[in-house]
Amino acid sequence: EYTTTFTTTNSDGSVETDSGVVIVTTDSDGSLTTTTSLFPQETSSTDDGLTEYTTTFTTTNSDGSVETDSGVVIVTTDSDGSLTTTTSLFPQETSDDLTEYTTTFTTTNSDGSVETDSGVVIVTTDSNGSLTTTTSLFPTGPVF
């Protein structure tokens, strides 16, 4: 899995720059396959400078079966100015109304230091049928 930025020439001749996550897998024939999940043009930013969104993608397993997964992608910028991502997949077992799980991920801060955070991700479905998430980080310091 890696992030990339590329340009596309649209049918009207305009040039568009997109960024996204590329996931590389091997299919049942041993050939490399890729799935690209573009970062949305409009994303939500959290108070701590993270940008996160939900996405759904398909993966071809080693036995040739196709699996559909969904998860949260958190996009940050590392000390070199490059985009980095952390993907946290939603568990396969979900309830119809609400799914909640804990996750741990690393973030590269603007000074280049790496921070590990954990929290609860609550997954719901909005009125349009799209997955939405709310992330609540566990406190990092002692609780008095």
Describe the structure.
It comes from Candida maltosa (strain Xu316) (Yeast). With 144 residues, the protein is mostly beta strands. The protein has one domain. It is built from no helices and ten strands. The radius of gyration is 17 Å and the shape is globular. The N and C termini lie far apart (40 Å). The model has no long low-confidence stretch (mean pLDDT 71).
In short:
By secondary structure, the protein is mostly beta strands. It is built from no helices and 10 strands.
Keywords:
144 residues; mainly beta; 4-stranded antiparallel β-sheet; 10 strands; 0% helix
In which order are the strands of the major sheet placed? 4-5-6-7
Distance between the termini: 40 Å
What Rg, in angstroms, do the CA atoms define?
A: 17 Å
In total, the number of strands is 10
- Alpha-beta content class: mainly beta
**Global morphology:** globular
The profile of the biggest β sheet is: 4 strands, antiparallel
The domain count comes to 1
Low-confidence stretches: none
Mean pLDDT: 71
- Number of helical stretches of at least 4 residues: 0
Strand content: over 45%
Topology order in helix (H) and strand (E) letters: EEEEEEEEEE
**Percentage of residues assigned to helices:** under 10%
